[in-house]
Design a protein that fits this description.
288 residues; 10 helices
């Protein structure tokens, strides 16, 4: 590679080259220290587990590969039900959460009942544990006999939508209110209606501001999908419970947990990546 002579336009000074070399060496040293400390921590953790007095009993009870292989087809079939419920719930939460967020940000005295209704909804469903909502919806609404017999996962999906739409609505509302008022005023001055201003100007900026928080809610809902088993749905958790009762071994629970982690891991990493990207964008030149 040719070197640009010092003093010519675009040339890198020797001092800057020394700084780059120093930063590169420091980065390599940090990577080595991180790898070494991680390996040391993992070795200590494994040693504590393996050398503990009851390790053999725990290994046979929770980490039996034969039991895991036998239970895998039924647990993975149950996980497919969890995935189906999750997909429908995400769509329902996105629609209901957006409507609630817009309702809470409406201005004008005439919209007071709508704002109060939306605020009451979010207060109630953010305050009640998800498990209780599942019980109330799954065992209460069918008792009204408004519909025919529906599967447990249907009522579980309704309960998840009711709970998580309240959380998502508050996150979206925070994003909407974080958009500077000048954006609305500029859009209205160009002749856009309130609805088009909200759809074309405000919501895109609001969603971008709160995307990491929305992704966190999604990951949390992905985990809570397993709670529909309390209604009798044979999902991954219920299938694991059946296998545990058959084999007198807790390995199917570990298997179900691993499958949920595998399902969540891509979205967790995506959330971290989007959070880091937003932080870099907002702190350009400010990172020490």
């Amino acid at each position: 590679m040719s070197t640009i002579p010092s003093g010519t336009p675009g040339a890198v000074s020797s001092l800057e080259l020394e700084r780059r070399a120093f930063r590169s060496a420091r980065k390599q040293r940090s990577i080595l220290v991180s790898v070494a400390s991680t390996l040391l921590f993992a070795a200590v953790l494994v040693a504590i587990l393996v050398l503990s007095p009851g390790w053999e009993r725990v290994r046979a009870t929770f980490f039996d590969l034969g039991v895991a292989a036998d239970a895998f087809p039924r647990v993975i079939a149950g996980l497919w039900i969890n995935i189906q419920v999750l997909v429908v719930a995400v769509i329902g939460v996105a629609i209901l959460g957006t409507l609630l967020a817009v309702a809470r940000t409406l201005r004008g005295a005439v919209f007071t009942p709508i704002r109060l209704l939306a605020a009451g909804y979010t207060d109630i469903f953010r305050g009640i544990p998800v498990l209780l909502v599942l019980y109330l919806v799954g065992f209460g609404i069918p008792g009204l006999e408004l519909t025919g017999r529906m599967p447990p996962q249907f009522w579980g999906t309704i309960a998840l939508i009711l709970c998580y739409s309240a959380y998502v609505a508050e996150v979206l509302r925070a994003g909407i209110e974080a958009v500077h008022p000048s954006q609305r005023l500029a859009a209205r001055s160009l002749g856009l209606s309130h609805g088009r201003t909200l759809r074309l100007i405000v919501m895109p900026q609001a969603v971008r501001k709160v995307t990491p928080a929305l992704m966190n809610d999604f990951v949390s809902m992905q985990k809570d999908v397993g709670l529909i088993s309390v209604l009798g749905a044979v999902d991954a958790v219920r299938a694991a419970q059946i296998e545990v009762a058959s084999a007198y071994n807790f390995t199917p629970y570990v298997l179900a947990g691993v499958l949920f982690v595998v399902l969540s891991w891509p979205f967790i990493r995506l959330t971290d990546w989007m959070t880091a990207r937003a932080q870099r964008r907002e702190q350009i030149g400010g990172v020490v």
